[in-house]
Structures are given as C-alpha cells and as structure tokens.
Fold these 4 entries.
Entry 1:
Amino acid sequence: MNTSNSLLVIVLLAAIGSVIFMMSLVFPMSIYTWLLVLDIVAILWVAVYELRKKFRK
C-alpha cells in the first residue's frame, strides 16, 4: 500500500469514526462504542503498518 493510499484510508476511517461518535451521542447504545473502538484500532493498525514499512528499509 502506498503512503498516500494509507493516508487516505486513515482519513476515511477518521471520518467514519466521527460519524459513529456523533451517532453514539444521539443514540447511546453499546454497539456504537464497539464500532468506535474497532475504528480506532483500524487507524492504529494502518499507522503501525506504515511505520514498520518505513523503518524496515
């Protein structure tokens, strides 16, 4: 995955996370909390993938 593609994925995941956060404020259900946690984990996974790829060279 290119670095620009990874940045695009992180931006899209952050946008989805902000929508999930707003929905969790409107409808307080535990499913939104788990979706938000999954979204944050996905963002961190992409960031760690990029850092490992950068330092592997």
Note: The two ends are 15 Å apart (CA to CA).
Entry 2:
Amino acid sequence: MSLIDQASSYHELAVFRSRYFTLMERTLPKEACRLVKDHWNKKAKDPKLPIAPASKA
C-alpha cells in the first residue's frame, strides 16, 4: 500500500493498477485484495490528486 500512498497523480495510480492488480488477484487472499483495492479507490477519489504528474502537466 505504500506504493499507492506514494503516487503523486491519478496517472501513477492507473499504472500501478494495470501492472499489479491482476498479479495481486492471483497471489493474495481475497480479503487482502479487497483491502488494497479499497485503499487504491480512496486515494483515486482524493480531489487534491492531480490527473497527471507535475512534470507532465
């Protein structure tokens, strides 16, 4: 979850999701997956989170 916390933009969250969610679903228990996804959703819904990283905005 620290990778999710370190994301500085929605773009970075989307990259994390595309790279890790499928792998996570295959290897972790369902409850652990749900906790990570809930944490991801909370961060993604943060209105202060920019869409693109500052260097690409």
Note: The mean pLDDT is 92.
Entry 3:
Amino acid sequence: MNRHLAVSTEVRAAIATYLRDRRGTLVEISDAVRAVRRRVPHVRLSDRQIGDAIAAEAVKINCAVFFDGRKDA
C-alpha cells in the first residue's frame, strides 16, 4: 500500500466540510471516513489514508478527533 498517495481537492473539501460542520464536538475518525466515502464515493484511497488526511485537517482547524481502536466484529 502506498501511504503517500495524493489526496484530491475534492476529498480534502469533503473532509474540511465534515469537520467544520462538527466543530466543537468530538469526532470519531471512522465516522468521518464513512461520511467522506458517502460524499465522494469514487475515492480510491484506503480508509487509513482518508483517516490520516482527516487527522491532518483536524490539526489545522483545531478540531478534536479520536480513533476508537476496537475492531468491529
């Protein structure tokens, strides 16, 4: 897996919109990944790559995010 694929402007915009809509709340990264996939269904990035982009954007706009490390059964 290439973890350094470029994240498209469309995906970055979807991430920024999702996080800004939820500013002031604690955002779970997996929920944000699902929301981005719904807004940009043709994205070819892995969940991990989208999650990394979400975390990076959250730092830029001072939005609190967390990752629930439990695996869904």
Note: Helices lie at 9-21, 29-39, 47-61.
Entry 4:
Amino acid sequence: MPTRFEDAVEGFGEMSNNLADTFWKVKSLSIYEWQAVYRIKGIGEEKVFPSLPEAERWVREKVYAKAQELGGF
C-alpha cells in the first residue's frame, strides 16, 4: 500500500513503500497550470497540464504501469 502525502508547497501524491525513490506528485503552478512529476528509482518525467484531472491521470498511468513491473506500489 503506498503512502499518500499532501503539502501546500510540494503538492499531493503517493510514495511507493516497496521501491526506493519511487513516487508521483501533482502540484499547482498557477490557476491554469498543473505540474505532474513521477520518479521510479530516481528516474522519471515531469509535464505541465492545463487541468488537475489531466495531470493526475497522466502521472498515475505512467508511474503505475512502469513501477508495478519492478514491484513498486
């Protein structure tokens, strides 16, 4: 089971409890920009979206598909 987090500065997301340096997060850059970030064993991507649902959907799809192959989340 992943550990959820929420922070006013860092945004919100989840950290994998069984794969080091593996997480996803989404944070607001402005009213019209949401940054989605994921890392799997320290390597990942980040992308900016115009809406929160788009950002969260993209980051969850990416990190879960890749991390589960390695035993994460």
Note: The chain has one helix and five strands.
